[in-house]
Amino acid sequence: xxxxxxxxxxxxxxxxxxxxxxxxxxxxxxxxxxxxxxxxxxxxxxxxxxxxxxxxxxxxxxxxxxxxxxxxxxxxxxxxxxxxxxxxxxxxxxxxxxxxxxxxxxxxxxxxxxxxxxxxxxxxxxxxxxxxxxxxxxxxxxxxxxxxxx
Length: 150
Ligand code: 4NP
Hints:
CATH topology: Rossmann fold
Number of helices: 5
Order of helices and strands: EHEHHEHEH
Strand order of the largest sheet: 2-1-3-4
Number of domains: 1
Strand content: 5-15%
Helix content: 40-55%
Bound molecules: 4-nitrophenyl phosphate
Structural class: alpha/beta
Distance between the termini: 15 Å
């Protein structure tokens, strides 16, 4: 069965909507019709479009992106097979929010590759968003290699 994946960061406007877009794209390239969504641990940007710099990085690589920011819900822990945290702080927030009847596997996304967090590009510049993009590509491949197979 194809995995259903929720990518999670703090604001759900930079890293996780980019991760959602890239994982969907990489899945399509592999012929997979994945269910992918993203959410934030915070309420800061609920309802907002992805950050302009996130959209620009995806556009540059011809990766479609469309998302309205939302906060993680308890229901997410049952709806998705995998919840992928961008960094350790996000993972900690998720562990605190996780209900007893959760079925999703909740992991640092980087744990599928090199255990590195995705650095928050929000206070950075174009280069940081490009780095974030490249990391999302590598992490998407590492995740799919392990969970779906090469
Ligand atoms: P994200 O980046 O977690 O990758 O979406 C951030 C967006 C907004 C804020 C922090 C990080 N903020 O503090 O508003």
